[in-house]
Recover the amino acids of this structure.
């Protein structure tokens, strides 16, 4: 039971592929024609930006299945280890699985080798996972993540976006993914600066998500009735930290909500 | 044509066991102790190659004997646990299953192969009284022939394991803070070694399973921390 595998390396992803293929979903060759996959939940808007101390990553909470709400409080931003984060958009099932796999992958490597991968190495690893998902993506199960973290060697926050083929592009400023990303990016573009403080970055991210939710029906806005707020993480030299809900609520009420009422919106 | 010699199974096993014990006795011993907030593992190890390692959220590994053999076991343990955690949930990964798998694997090599593994390992798991079913600390010792035993309070492996246990029986106290437990552990290693000379802080490899930590309880103490704790 213990000594049965052939795989000898440090990658959990490869270990599963080689020694435990039955644990991996095999989506190739099934219902090859387009549109064969029945309806399934989609995650929508996530964003990441650099700021003075590192990077921020945030995501709305809504998952939609066609015109229906699949979940109102889905988590789309995940810490993958002490110094990195991943945000997922697209087909919720494979996307959450990918985030989970990346976390195990990074931890597995660290335990086997006794040291962590460099941030670039982690970003590259995610690239291979997105590429491995390409056959599923061809059938509509598209996953488009954003990866961000604090590079302890270079002492700065960095972030990458991906395409469905596993293409990996480092972004110097900010990035957004998902159905509301166009509006979120437009919003970020007008106010983003490299020297944003932590509080300014938090405000800006909530503003951008509010703008996306305003224009895109599949993006979830803040739900004050149910008390549902976006998930926001900072990653700095102190590691990845989730912003407490009451801090998000305060920032939202004091800055975003007030500004919207001012322009006559009904938010 | 050569005539095969008859060797009695008793003799064969005794020879293998002696071979393995000799190999293990050449290296230094390791001790693992419970303290008030978890489990501490202490090894005298002047090299940068680790003898103690993280296996999973609450599980640590320590091995003595031939480095290539116990390091291979450590990696197998990580693969075993990560696959289980992926397949089921992180809470389903338990030290007992891992120790049994080690016992099976080491025992199989001992009976079926010409050369036994010259290793002895500890699998330690930190418990937390706040979680039902996970309250107790557990420590398993697996020997060169696959013999498995569970230990409470303290556990020693290596050529000097018996002397370690004798020392700890008289000096170990339950519920001590980390610093005190660590001092007892180091004193046990000193008492059990043949020379009995003091061990410098930079020659110690010390790791803890600290139940107060979030998620991953394993932590490797830096050289400065070791020096500070031992004064």
């Amino acid at each position: 039971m213990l000594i049965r595998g052939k795989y000898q390396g440090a990658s959990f992803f490869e270990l599963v592929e080689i020694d435990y293929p039955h644990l991996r979903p095999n989506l190739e060759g099934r219902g090859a024609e387009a549109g064969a996959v029945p309806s399934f939940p989609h995650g929508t808007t996530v964003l990441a930006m650099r700021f003075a101390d590192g990077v921020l990553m945030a995501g709305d909470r809504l998952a939609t299945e066609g015109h229906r709400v699949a979940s109102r409080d889905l988590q789309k931003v995940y810490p993958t280890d002490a110094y990195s984060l991943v945000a997922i958009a697209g087909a919720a099932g494979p996307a959450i699985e990918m985030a989970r796999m990346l976390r195990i992958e990074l931890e597995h490597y660290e335990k086997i080798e006794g040291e962590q991968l460099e941030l670039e190495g982690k970003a590259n690893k995610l690239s291979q996972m997105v590429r491995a998902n390409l056959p599923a993506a061809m059938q509509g199960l598209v996953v488009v993540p954003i990866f961000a973290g604090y590079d302890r060697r270079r002492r700065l926050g960095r972030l990458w976006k991906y395409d469905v083929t596993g293409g990996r592009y480092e972004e110097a400023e900010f990035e957004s993914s998902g159905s509301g990303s166009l509006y979120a990016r437009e919003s970020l573009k007008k106010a983003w600066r490299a020297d944003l403080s932590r509080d300014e970055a938090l405000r800006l991210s909530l503003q951008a998500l509010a703008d996306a939710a305003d224009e895109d029906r599949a993006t979830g806005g803040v739900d004050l009735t149910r008390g549902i707020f976006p998930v926001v993480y900072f990653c700095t030299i102190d590691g990845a930290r989730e912003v407490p809900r009451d801090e998000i609520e305060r920032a939202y009420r004091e800055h975003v909500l007030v500004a919207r009422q001012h322009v006559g919106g009904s938010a | 044509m050569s005539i095969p010699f008859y060797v009695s199974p008793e003799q064969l096993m005794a020879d293998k066991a002696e071979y393995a014990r000799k190999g293990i006795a050449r290296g230094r011993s390791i001790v693992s102790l419970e303290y008030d907030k978890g489990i501490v593992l202490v090894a005298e190890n002047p090299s940068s190659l680790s003898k103690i390692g993280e296996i999973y959220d609450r599980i640590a590994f320590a091995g003595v004997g031939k480095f290539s053999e116990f390091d291979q076991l450590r990696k197998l343990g990580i693969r075993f646990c990560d696959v289980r955690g992926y397949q089921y949930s992180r809470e389903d990964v338990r030290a007992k299953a891992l120790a049994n798998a080690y016992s099976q694997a080491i025992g199989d090599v001992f009976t079926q192969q010409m050369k036994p593994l010259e290793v002895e390992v500890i699998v330690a798991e930190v418990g937390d009284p706040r979680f039902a079913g996970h309250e107790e600390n557990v420590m398993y010792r697996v020997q060169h022939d696959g013999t498995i035993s569970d230990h409470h309070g303290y556990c020693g492996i290596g050529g000097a394991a018996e002397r370690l246990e004798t020392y700890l029986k008289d000096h170990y106290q339950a519920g001590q803070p980390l610093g005190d437990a660590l001092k007892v552990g180091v004193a046990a290693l000193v008492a059990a070694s043949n020379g009995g000379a003091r061990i410098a802080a930079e020659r110690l490899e010390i790791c803890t399973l600290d139940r107060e930590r979030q998620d991953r309880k394993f932590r490797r103490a830096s050289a400065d921390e070791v020096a500070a704790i031992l004064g």
Observations:
- Residues 9-230 of chain B form a domain with the Glutamine Phosphoribosylpyrophosphate, subunit 1, domain 1 fold (CATH 3.60.20.10).
- Chain B has a mean pLDDT of 93.
- Residues 18 and 24 of chain B are 10 Å apart (CA to CA).
- The beta strands of chain B are 30-35, 38-44, 52-56, 59-65, 119-125, 138-142, 148-151, 154-157, 204-210, 218-220.
